[in-house]
Design brief:
The strands form 5 sheets. This protein has a 6-stranded antiparallel barrel. A 4-stranded antiparallel β-sheet has the order 3-10-8-5, with no helix packed on it. Helix 2 runs antiparallel to helix 3. The protein is rod-shaped, with a radius of gyration of 40 Å. It folds into 3 domains: 127 residues, conserved putative lor/sdh protein from methanococcus maripaludis s2 fold, CATH 2.40.420; 86 residues, Elongation Factor Tu (Ef-tu), domain 3 (Beta Barrel), CATH 2.40.30; 140 residues, RNA polymerase II/Efflux pump adaptor protein, barrel-sandwich hybrid domain (OB fold (Dihydrolipoamide Acetyltransferase, E2P), Beta Barrel). With 373 residues, it is α+β, with helices and mostly antiparallel strands.
Length: 373
């Protein structure tokens, strides 16, 4: 004998489930419904809507202001005033690196300047005296020029010593690493006792204004532009966002493009480096929508009550899609124009007689349509 293969489509599955549900609760419900008066309900027609089409992608939380701090001269780490996650203000001390050497260089520069200044003072006095002697012919030109050259040399030495002192003061300032702006210590690479070379990263400071980064493929990238709206979900919470950057250059390895987004909520604080789920609108699509309040569960199955031509409520299984506002998209189980009961009463049964009136939202839609007409 030949075996038959049955293909189960979504509509067939919904149909079979509806038959099973009707066999379970349909006949008793209809028998009881015949003994009661019609129930007054509000209905809304399933209508086609043009909804934004979203694509969901992984992203990461970064910061608009992001700085990697380093030591200018390097040296021994003698103090670390923060840890990863510390909140800092602009100017707060982060660490001290090479402070002992910097202080020694400053002391040396100050002593050298004092010595050179003393030499200059003496040379200046001699230069003044020999200038007077030379003007009265009491000193030769050779003597005057020798003293004057010594004066100029001492003056130049003081200038060099002052520059060295300024450099030493700067080195001492750079030995105390401070926060350039308010934010959070995102990363810390050093501990007390470490020896670091000049330019080596010490900490990363993330500013208080978050941004979200994501990599998108070429098809999604082509549908986006700065100013487009997006939604960002982090730790179970969702915020509206706007795209601020779409990078035209693709990553050679992944062939994806970087996009950056900022939240439109000013006070939102997101942890640096956290995982984010990004929803991007890449166009619009037609959906069949009904009020979300029309959805109910019967015998553990999701569906809606549809008002039939004879004024009876018939439970219909549906498969739903995305939700927008107070409406939900129905992927299978309904046709455009069918009337569903909004917020069905708890005691409503399959087959119950109903008296239908338009819901407030449906009436508003009709009013808008009449106004447009």
């Amino acid at each position: 004998m030949r075996s038959a293969t049955i293909r189960f489509t979504p509509m067939l599955v919904l149909g079979l489930a509806s038959l099973l549900l009707a066999a379970r609760v349909g006949l008793p419900d209809r028998a009881r419904a015949a003994d009661v008066h019609p129930t007054s309900v509000q209905v809304s027609a399933a209508v086609e809507r043009s909804w934004p089409q979203f694509v969901r992608l992984p992203g990461a939380v970064s910061a608009v202001e992001l700085a990697t701090l380093a030591s200018r001269e390097g040296g021994r780490v003698t103090r670390v005033a923060v840890r990863a996650g510390s909140v800092v203000k602009a100017g707060d001390l982060i660490a001290e690196v090479g402070l002992t050497n910097a202080q020694a260089q400053l002391d040396q520069a100050q002593a050298n300047l004092a010595s050179q200044q003393a030499i200059l003072d003496e040379a200046a006095a001699s230069n003044k005296r020999y200038t007077q002697l030379y003007s009265t012919k009491a000193a030769s030109q050779q003597q005057y020029q020798s003293v004057h050259r010594s004066y100029l040399t001492a003056k130049a030495a003081v200038s060099v010593a002052r520059s060295a002192l300024s450099n030493a003061q700067n080195n001492l300032t750079y030995a105390r690493i401070k926060a350039p702006f308010a934010g959070t210590v995102a990363k810390k690479y050093i501990d007390v006792g470490d020896f670091v070379v000049g330019g080596a990263p010490l900490v990363v400071i993330a500013g208080r204004t978050p941004k979200i980064e994501a990599q998108v493929g070429p098809v999604v990238y082509a549908a986006l532009k700065p100013g487009d709206h997006a939604r960002v979900s982090v730790d179970g919470k969702t915020w509206p966002a706007v795209i601020t950057l779409t990078d035209a250059s693709a990553d050679p390895g992944t062939h994806t493009h970087l996009i950056e987004m900022r939240l439109t909520t000013a006070k939102a604080q997101l942890p640096y480096g956290a995982y984010a789920e990004v929803s991007l609108a890449t166009g619009r699509t037609k959906v069949l929508a009904v009020p979300a309040a029309a959805l109910v569960r019967r015998a553990g199955l999701l569906g809606v009550f549809v008002v039939g031509p004879k004024g009876h409520a018939n439970f219909r299984l549906v498969r739903t899609g995305a939700r927008q506002g107070d409406e939900v998209a129905v992927v299978a189980g309904l046709s455009a124009g069918e009337k569903v009961i909004v917020a069905p009463p708890p005691g409503l049964m399959n087959g119950s007689a109903v008296t239908a009136s338009a819901s407030a939202a449906q009436a508003a839609d009709k009013t808008k349509g009449a106004d447009r007409g």
